[in-house]
Structure formats: C-alpha cells, structure tokens
Amino acid sequence: MTAPPGRRERKKAATRRKIADTALRLFLDRGYDAVGIRDVAAEADVAVTTVFSHFASKEALVFEQDEDFEQRLVQAVTGRAPHEPLIPALCREIQALVRHCAADSAAPVWRMVDETPALRKYEESMMLRHAESLATAIADDPGLPQTTTACRTIARFAVDAYSLAREAADPEAAVDEIFRMIEAAWEAARPARDT
Amino acid sequence: MTAPPGRRERKKAATRRKIADTALRLFLDRGYDAVGIRDVAAEADVAVTTVFSHFASKEALVFEQDEDFEQRLVQAVTGRAPHEPLIPALCREIQALVRHCAADSAAPVWRMVDETPALRKYEESMMLRHAESLATAIADDPGLPQTTTACRTIARFAVDAYSLAREAADPEAAVDEIFRMIEAAWEAARPARDT
DNA sequence: ACCATAACACTAACCGTTAGTTTTAAAAAA
DNA sequence: TTTTTTAAAACTAACGGTTAGTGTTATGGT
Predict the structure, then answer these.
(1) Hey, are the CB atoms on A160 and B174 less than 8 Å from each other?
(2) How far apart (Å, rounded) are the C-alpha atoms in residues B104 and A156?
(3) What residue ranges do the domains of chain A occupy?
(4) Three-state DSSP class for residue A49
(5) Which of A13, A174, A192, B120 is placed for a possible disulfide with A168 were both Cys, Cβ 3.0 to 4.6 Å?
(6) Cβ–Cβ under 8 Å, residues B128 and B158
(7) If we measure between CA atoms, which residue out of B147, B119, B153 comes closest to residue B134?
C-alpha cells in the first residue's frame, strides 16, 4: 500500500509541499496579511485554484500538519499502557505539545499566529475539532465508565489547558497547575463509587 | 447622561435596529448564506457601507446583543451577595443563559446558528472573548486568592459548560454535571490551605 | 447665522474563494 | 504500442464580504 507511491502522487505531494513552503516563507517575510493568495500562487508558480485544491483556506496554509496534533492527542489516550490512568497520560502529551510550540525552531510561526486575529480564530476552531476527536477517544475507552458529557468536558478542558498554557508566562508550570484542576474534575465526574 | 439622547443618537439607534431587524428577518426567511450584505442593505434602504459602520461583520448582525451575555457573566461574579461562593453563582447564571437560548422565542435563531458554520465559528471566538472578561472579573475579586492561571482556567471551563450544555440532550442536567466538575477543579486550585 | 462634525450615500476596488471549462500528463486497457 | 481513462493542474470569470476614498446632508454647539 505504501510501497511505490507512483509518480502522480509524488508530483502531487511535491506541489503541495512547494505551495506550503512558499506560503510560509512569504508570510514570515512580509507578514500574513500583507501576502495574498495570488502572491503565494505566483511565487510557487501554480494557479490560484491549485492552491485551493490542496488547502481549504488561506489559514490552512499555516497549519499544514494539524492532523498530527489531533493524532497525538487521540493516541495519548488510546495508546497508553494498560491500566495507566487517563489524566496523567493526557497531561504528559499536552506538556510535550506545549514545549513543541514554545521551544521549537518554529517559534516565529507561533508568534505570527499569536499576532494575527484570523489565524488565532482558525486555531481556536481547530482545537475544538480536536477536542471532539479526543472526547470520542475517551468515551470509547472501556475502562472509563463516564458519561459522554463528562468525556466531552474533560476533552475540552485538556485543549483549554493547551491554549491557556501557551499564553502563560511559564507554560509548563501552567500545564501542571491546570491539570491538577482537571484531575479533580475527572474524579468528581466518577459515578460516586469507590473512595 | 441618559436623559435626552438627542435626535442624532436616536436616529442612529433607529438605523441600527432597522438594519439588525431586517437582516434577521431575511436570514430566517431565506437562510443566512442565501442572503448577501447587499440584500440586507437594499431591504433596509441603507448603503452597504452603512451596514458595516454599525456592525463589524455579517455574523455580527446575528449576535447583535452579545454584550449582554458578557455583562451577565461578569455581573454574576461581581454582583453576587457578599461571601456567596463563586461557583454556584456562576452555575446559576449559566443555567439561566442556557435556558434563555433553548426555550426563548429566539429558538429559530439558535437553530440557524447551529446549522451555519460561519456563525458557529463566530460564536466560538465570541465565547472566548467573554471568558477573558470573566477571568478578569474573577481575578479582581478580593475574596478569591487564586492564581491568574486558575482564574482564567475556571472562566474557560464556565463557557465550556455553556457550549457543551447547549449541545447536550438535557441541557440543564448537563450544566449541573459539568459544574460539579468545575467545583472540584476550583477546590483543587486552592493554595493548599484549609480542609 | 455659522461652523464642526457625525451619519450616511456612492463608487470602486481588494481579496478570499468557487464554478466551469480545458489542457496536460500519468495510469490502465486494448 | 496505441488507445482510453482518469486525475492534476491551468485558465477565465465571477461571487460575496469588506474597505478606502469622496461627497452630501442634517444635527448640535457657538
């Protein structure tokens, strides 16, 4: 299935990457709002319609690999060791993601995102989508007999932790602090059984 | 200050209301996406630029009185009885807001919002703005010696409760369930003092 | 009566996005 | 190979939200 990708798919992937790379370079160079889609298309030597056949919107050019993010969140839940409690596993993953954004070589990108309202809005609804996937993953865990509402709530709280921590002075400490609260919320959601 | 508003301000308010009313009527009649700003302007008998001098965007026409929402959240914190605990007061207000959306005569509006992606996105970032105001109000309460991070977290959780409850089968029960979790989170955020 | 200004109108455009159509090139069938 | 099919990408043109620039009118203060 992943053996010989075929020339067509290779060219398509190359076009996609060329567009994304060109766009990011121009955005960082001249500022997101100062660069139009037509500029990106011209610089990447493709048609405007080609840009939109690879990316759903201008903002999507910046968040090229957002599916990674979602995957990692879900995997932190579904792929954790047996009997490992949910919340610490989630906390570790959020910590890793926050570090990834704060310290990465991609720091200028995140500064641009923070400074551009359109990008902030886009990221917000992206995170809500991710929260939905995370909620489903939590709800599907057979070892967690919680309400759907409780699962969706915890998922929201987790992505809240991410975005709040990114704005905090000490992001990693903020994640810890918020997750102490999430842990308590998760306990309180238990169907009033043990301890 | 509110005595004789003057003819000018009255006319301005009238124009604003006429635009908003016309827009909402057209939206509910023909569907949000099927009505253009130029349609609204023509039907309200104003220029397109006048619409945008009263409302920042097409979506803002639908959420005309969103400042009410923010005010009520903040007031639930700042205007509560002395020594009344924070969380129950917040819970009551969120309950009221959820009821207001679910049972109000404005139910068709909320159905339209739920069905229109652009409006949902707009509401999302609106709620985040409200969460910021709420966080400030909580942080400014002298009786609550919590971290800024904890205050912002609780504010987020509260608006999460609102949007999650609105999507739940039994909204009022959902608010109660989520606020049990929020209460626990708030307790856990205490600087490790009493009890 | 006069002037400053706020509200609004009008034109024209910018920019993200999409539809419709056509060319090009890769994959599959003959 | 040759032919046929299919998918990528080009091109043209437009739509719809939004804004800039420029007047025009009516209101409020002097």
Answers:
(1) no
(2) 27
(3) 6-58, 66-188
(4) helix
(5) A174
(6) no
(7) B153
Considering all CA atoms of chain A, what is the largest pairwise distance in Å, rounded to the nearest integer? 64
For the domain made up of B6-58, the CATH class stated in words is mainly alpha
pLDDT tens-digit series, residues A83-93? 999 999 999 99
Q: Are B39 and B74 in contact (CB under 8 A)?
A: no
What pLDDT is attached to residue B5?
65
A positions 152-191 inside 8 Å of B (CB): 152-154, 156-157, 160-161, 164, 168, 174, 177-178, 180-189
Q: Which residue in this structure is represented by tokens 């599916």? A: A67
CATH class of the domain whose range is B66-188:
mainly alpha
CA dihedral A133, B189, B91, B98 (to 10 degrees): -20
Q: Which of residues 50-109 of A touch strand D (CB under 7 A)?
A: 50, 53-54
**Fold: same for B6-58 and B66-188:** no
* Residue A193 in this model has a pLDDT that exceeds 80: no
In this structure, what is the dihedral angle of CA atoms A77, A82, A86, A88, given to the nearest 10 degrees?
Answer: -100
Q: CA-to-CA distance for A175 and A95, rounded, in angstroms?
A: 7
pLDDT for residue A118 is more than 50: yes
- Closest residue on chain B to A118 (Cα): B125
